[in-house]
Fold each of these.
Amino acid sequence: MDKNPQLQAHVLVEALPYMQRFHGRTIVIKYGGNAMTEAHLQEQFAYDVTLMKQVGMNPVVVHGGGPQIGAMLERLGVETRFVDGMRVTDAATMEVVEMVLGGRVNKEIVQGINRAGGRAVGLTGKDGALLRARPLRNAVADLGMVGEVAAVNPEVIRWLDQGDFIPVVAPIGVGARGESYNINADLVAGALAATLKAEKLILMTNVAGVLDKEGTLRTRLEASEVAQMIADGQIYGGMLPKIQCCLDAVAAGVQAAHIIDGRVPHALLLEIFTDAGVGTLIAGCR
Ligand SMILES: Nc1ncnc2c1ncn2[C@@H]1O[C@H](COP(=O)(O)OP(=O)(O)O)[C@@H](O)[C@H]1O
Ligand SMILES: CC(=O)N[C@@H](CCC(=O)OP(=O)(O)O)C(=O)O
């Protein structure tokens, strides 16, 4: 890309109000498995998060890894299926989920941020008892070891923030008897954003945002519109937990929740440092 010093200076000045507004604020970013499939996007994500930390924000990364779990289950010959956007998780599947999310995916993100000059620390919900979980009930199916967040103990995140580290959280929860739960990463991000009283919750996925039945991007959605869109079948599958956690987060006091397209280069910087925004803003009832 051609370097234009005047343009570079202009971009920095334009970013100044955003740096001031978000200084010292927590921004929870859910990095979806579908948004991390290309190396150049992974690298850009790592730089974006590192830059946020460098200018004084507290980014907290929660990652998914659905496609990566799926690929490993396939290699191992374990069949898998989803109900309402949740992977039905038996004991064998849980073992693979924990290995893939807590192992390879988590460490790749940590390593990427460290390579970009940040200081990332990888955790699962077991570390520091961060995520207490209980079984997630579904009206039509037994989801096995799928969990929902029962309680968040944010102490370890606060320590990391204060130490200038960037927490990178894999969505594994711990039950009352120490058993592991597979929690949808969107739900973990929403619960963390609510507990940490985050300024923003940003969910990065592989669609432009929430689309209506004509396939048009909804740049803003009111809480009151969502129930009708679900009833009409306009919002389904993997978008259901995203919408739910955005609604829960704004109801709990998070200022703004965004569903953005992780395939757009530097989508995070565009969302945070420009007025343009990329994707759907979920607004609360207030
Ligand atoms: N109204 C909608 N707008 C956009 N995507 C939707 C909508 N309803 C359902 N979806 C589905 O939700 C998917 C995103 O969820 P998911 O695949 O779980 O993403 P991620 O892996 O990033 O968490 C989209 O690819 C699309 O198939
Ligand atoms: C219960 C449940 O479905 N858990 C998810 C956890 C990973 C995740 O949420 O990954 P994405 O964000 O990439 O979809 C799963 O097993 O795929």
Amino acid sequence: MPFKEARDRVILTHPKGASVTILFFGATIISWKSPDRPVRGGIPIVFPNFGPAEHPDHKDLPQHGFSRNAPWEFDDSLLMDNEAGVAARFTLEPLDKIRAVYKRPFQLVYIVTLAEHQLTTDLHVKNTGPDPFEFQALLHTYIRAPSKEVSISPLKGKSYIDKTEVSAEGRATVKEEKRDVVDVKKPTDSVYENAPPSVQVKWPGGGVEVRSAGFPTLTIWNPQEQGAEVPDMEEGGWERFVCVEPGYARGFKKLDAGSTYAAQQVLSVL
Ligand SMILES: O=P(O)(O)OC[C@H]1O[C@H](O)[C@H](O)[C@@H](O)[C@@H]1O
């Protein structure tokens, strides 16, 4: 079926993987995806490696792994559908394309729960194989906000690594956050450890609380003018977002055979 119709929209799918979502309201196109390119925005899911591959299991994988570029399964039913929330479940298992580059048997489950002013995303990683394996995982949350005016807190006193440092030694050096309020006025790519369970992201006229559980790190990213070097970023795109990314992004999480790792992000409007 090249199209899927919902109450308010239709999604056209090209046999090679591209898709477009068109609302009936104004026949407005709200999403267009060409094949195999991750979406620059929203909440891409990063698994099993964050950044370039460092673990031998990940040596054939691209930056941020394969989960953001893979087609996930949706079983056409809702887990929850009432005033409290509407929840849908998506799964990803090793497809042939994944198995060709990654040997570990796994199942990812992603549950998206929409409440009136809150969006909850639960990520479960199950080791379905006979041996333990190690991975990283992260929710790469883009928040639409004026990046020169955003402030994020509380991160004071937290250790972090600064990936904007030019030397490998600089990037490996653990720094301590001295600021009451963190901003991204200059190019920022910081991975905080022992992330607080909640941070507030504020800008004039708006704000979002990012709560997380089970994710020990929090990455804050905005490249500012260096965004011009990011091939799929629109001109000036860096002025309109900040990424606040709960994850397991330093070291690796070891998962025993048959075990499941569960972590959650909750976004609330302030
Ligand atoms: O360009 P992407 O692969 O989507 O990565 C975008 C960014 O993701 C994370 O925030 C990393 O910390 C950054 O180093 C990286 O540049």
Amino acid sequence: MTYQHAPLGVAVIGTGRMGSDHVRRIDEVISGARVAAVVDIDGDRAKAAADRIEGCTAHTDPAAAMASAEVDAVLIASPGPAHEAALLEAFARGLPVLCEKPLAPDAESALRVVEAEARLGRRLVQVGFMRRYDAEYRQLKELLDGGGIGRTLMLHCTHRNVATPPGYTGPMMINDSVVHEIDVTRWLLGQEITAVQVLRPAPTASAPAGLSDPQLVLFETAGGAVVDVEIFVNCGFGYQVRCEAVGERGTARIGEAHGLSVDAAGRWGGAIAQDFTERFRAAYDREVQDWVDATRRGYTRGPSAWDGYAAAAVCEAGVRAQDTGGRTPVLLAERPGLYR
Ligand SMILES: NC(=O)c1ccc[n+]([C@@H]2O[C@H](COP(=O)([O-])OP(=O)(O)OC[C@H]3O[C@@H](n4cnc5c(N)ncnc54)[C@H](O)[C@@H]3O)[C@@H](O)[C@H]2O)c1
Ligand SMILES: O[C@H]1[C@H](O)[C@@H](O)[C@H](O)[C@@H](O)[C@H]1O
């Protein structure tokens, strides 16, 4: 394998909230890469992003950016329904991709991506499940893998957002938000999720009309563990992601750290992050740096297209369970050899 000495030329597709944050990250924070091109169907937005970076071109069509000789790799940060077309275009050109979650918005299209990559016979995709790069989650994984608390019996997870943006729907609570717990469950336990249930308490008065928020989502895993996830996307007070693992010989918790703590004026306490860009800033930095480092060495690692597909399959069962309230089995295709 050859090492690419020149900085990796990255095309960033989608320059909205995440895309523009990744553009800043590649330009100012990490090493070994440069933003060679940006793409947005909103041409003004693409141009505004490109104008801030020397030698960066602006495009409205992902294929045009990928055709540029300056582009060695692609970071997809457009909305989920646009991912499949961009991924297949990158495959046709043999370009490595860091694709924001979800890999694709449903299990069927995610499986098409898996099958297309399997036909290539080599991995090109890393999926943006950034929690795997978070220092606390990594410590927890190390503890569980090392048997520090014995066999894991349960995970108790909390996922709270301050408020939902306009257009946020009930299925998005699973597809956009709980998808992270789906990935960390599979990663921490090394087991597939086999069934999902969803319980819906009376909604908070802060939820937009028609949104049943919060919800309690339950997973069963192939090894017999049970996982509960409180998803509460209009909690109002902060961004909180917690996980407690219950093992045969102990428990372990992450997500409590609030950094600086101040005692003054008759009170004690610290601050709560307000969104994911703050809480997971270091994880996103590590994720993108790791992708760049591996890509320059000629390989792909991290969460795979199979992980993206498996998460989409669990999401599909989860959205069905939201409607029926019943226990819904997860249907998973056979895992291609590339991902074993
Ligand atoms: N890992 C995380 O924690 C995290 C957090 C937020 C969002 N995301 C993911 O990042 C992606 C983008 O989310 P966002 O919040 O930045 O959305 P956004 O709406 O802020 O930005 C999306 C941008 O993509 C552009 N766009 C739409 N269709 C396009 C296409 N076909 N080609 C090129 N550009 C197109 C839009 O004009 C917009 O500028 C989504 O997949 C989302 O799930 C991940
Ligand atoms: O798209 C976002 C993002 O994935 C965040 O990490 C998650 O906390 C939000 O709930 C979701 O809406």
Amino acid sequence: MTDPSVINLVSSNKCFEGFQNIYEHSSDELKCRMKFAAYIPCAESSKTLPVLIWLSGLTCTEQNFVAKSGFQKYAQAHKIIVIAPDTSPRGCKIEGDSEKWDFGEGAGFYVDATESKWAKNYRMYSYINSELHEVIKKNFTDGKEFKVSIFGHSMGGHGAMISFLKNPNKYCSVSAFAPISNPINCDWGKNAFTGYLGSNEEVWKDYDSCCLIKRYNGPDAEILVDQGLDDNFLKQNQLNPQNLIVASQGNERIRINLKNREGYDHSYYFISTFIEEHFEFHAKHLKD
Ligand SMILES: N[C@@H](CCC(=O)N[C@@H](CS)C(=O)NCC(=O)O)C(=O)O
């Protein structure tokens, strides 16, 4: 397999002085070709800038966030490199990987699968938290260590929170829009975790933000969470952000700053409305 750090530029568009690029590379973790988006702000030296990783939700590719959220203006203003990977391996031809929109392609759930059918390719947790960091270091920060934060939407909000909570000291900050906050207690999570991790619910807890908040032993942290109150998936109990607050009440190291937004739904219209506040939040932590 080709070195994952060898990346090919697929497209490049100037946007707010910087460039919105799309790259392709061979992933060792996922055993397939993957695309990811990288916004590189205009700066004296882009090689010393901090990095923010965005994780998208169900059905998304590396395109949704870059095309719909309007984040580039704020990435340029704060001079932050933004990396937005795809949401699952692609083209692996595993039986059943493209029949459902909430499992398989477009729905990797940011876990490392243990069920034999999925275990070879569905390793999004390691792809995001290990391989992608090496790719960023070799290509965007001149081989040097860099400051990095993480955020995401829905399934990607879950991915961002578990990545932060499982890796104390790796990420400077974390935030989420309408995250799947307690996957072991909602239909999406139960379905995906059964498929990727098997039926032992004890194993699922390692990928559940509420369980991880209770166990978290890292530096004091605030998690910024935005939630639209007209979000259909909130009404269907797929998201359960209030469970984050309950979980945090037993652990003074974590504070949940939950912002309930009247009238907003689950879409990128909601995300684009509040994305500026998330950049302000992360910029503060990345530049400390
Ligand atoms: N396909 C689903 C909706 C899936 C969905 O809302 N996905 C969210 C993340 S959980 C998303 O970001 N969709 C892509 C988009 O809005 O661009 C349905 O028809 O109900």
